[in-house]
């Protein structure tokens, strides 16, 4: 049962982060969702798009990371960790993801405004000129969130495994 709690925690953390993240980025550039994504959600409401894409684009990251985290926390004979033990580290990861998204979006926006990065030609034609820099801000912010989330999730699983090893060694002495 505790393994399921860990997986559910990871999926809900990923989806919750995705929804909040998308609530911000949908307001920076709605075209990131209406043009830059497949037309699964037929709406121009930033709120609706953010909720929809917040779920669609993140559950699939949270699920495998949750499974990996559940394995790292519960497999074998070493002392086991519970979902409650992983809440603070997971919140820290989400905070690092959010910070990385803000930094990456800012860097992407600066580089786009200077003409150092640009959209692919088909996107450049489809997106109004005044929305191209905001689109790149969203793109960089989302890319950073995925990268940091995946690397951070793998790091969290390794940290979890090592925490159990440390507990085992401490109990053995």
Task: Write structural notes for this entry.
With 173 residues, this protein is mostly helical. It has one domain (2-172). Helices cover 79% and strands 0% of the residues. The chain has 7 helices and no strands. α1 (2-28) packs antiparallel against α4. The longest helix is centred in the C-terminal third of the chain and has 41 residues, at 132-172. The protein is elongated. It starts with a helix and ends with a helix.
Q: Average pLDDT across residues?
A: 97
Low-confidence stretches: none
- Following the backbone from N to C, one meets helices and strands in this order, namely HHHHHHH
Please give the domain count. Answer: 1
The coarse overall form would be elongated
Largest sheet: none
Q: End-to-end span in angstroms?
A: 30 Å
> What is the helix fraction of residues, given as a range?
over 70%
Work out the oligomeric state of the chains in this entry. single chain
Beta-strand share of residues: under 5%
Number of strands: 0
List the keywords.
173 residues; mainly alpha; 7 helices; elongated
């Amino acid at each position: 049962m505790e393994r399921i709690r860990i997986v559910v925690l990871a999926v809900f953390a990923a989806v919750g982060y995705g929804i909040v993240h998308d609530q911000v980025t949908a307001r920076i550039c709605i075209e990131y969702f209406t043009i830059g994504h497949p037309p699964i959600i037929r709406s121009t409401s930033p709120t609706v798009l953010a909720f929809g894409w917040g779920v669609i684009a993140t559950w699939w990251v949270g699920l495998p990371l949750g499974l990996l985290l559940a394995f790292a926390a519960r497999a074998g004979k070493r002392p086991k960790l519970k979902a409650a033990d992983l809440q603070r580290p997971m919140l820290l990861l989400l905070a690092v993801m959010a910070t990385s998204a803000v930094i990456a979006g800012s860097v992407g926006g600066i580089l786009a405004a200077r003409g150092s990065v640009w959209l692919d030609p088909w996107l450049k034609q489809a997106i109004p000129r005044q929305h191209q820099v905001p689109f790149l801000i969203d793109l960089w912010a989302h890319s950073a969130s995925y990268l940091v989330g995946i690397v951070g999730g793998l790091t969290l699983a390794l940290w979890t495994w090592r925490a159990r090893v440390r507990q085992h060694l401490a109990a053995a002495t």
